[in-house]
Prior knowledge:
Strand order of the largest sheet: 1-4
Shape: globular
Order of helices and strands: HHHHHHHEEHHEE
Strand content: 5-15%
Distance between the termini: 25 Å
Helix content: 40-55%
Radius of gyration: 19 Å
Number of helices: 9
Largest sheet: 2 strands, antiparallel
Amino acid sequence: GCPLELGYLAVIESALNPNAVSRAGATGLWQFMYNTGKMYGLEVNTLVDDRRNPFLATDAAARHLKDLSNIFFNDWVLAMAAYNCGAGNVKKAIIRSGGKTDFWEIYNYLPRETRGYIPAFYGAWFAMQYYDKYDLCDSQAKFGQVDTVHIEKKVHLQQISTVLNIPIEELNDLKPQYKKNIIPLSNEVMTLT
Length: 193
């Protein structure tokens, strides 16, 4: 239920690096803080950090943005601003502006980082839409064909690397949420794609 263009926020958040960690501890493509990640079902423990899982974190980010949009009058720009600085700061900015609900009208009441966040989003959107007009080239995906392996026991990625003859670095790139290269034992079947 989100506009596809919101995917460009991951460029602003992490430069599309699933291992990115901010000074404040926000982690992953979508820079989830621990509590927000937990609120949206992302597991974080000694062995696994789902904030680094591109699929799970993207799903959580979409749900979070949808929730923020519902709070802010179905306005996606205000939802993006709230994603960056928190819903409370956007609500305060609305109050301080005299009740205005347009991003540009509450701009001066928002934190400095958020004032640059929305223009950065539009810049990323523009670059992605018109890359060919500015001699920017699209890059090919690093990975070719992938498959899914179902794992029912605790296993180290080095074991999988050896059996499948795939470099461990490639497995780390495909599954950055496994912090110690260990897929932990679980009551559920774990997947490695």
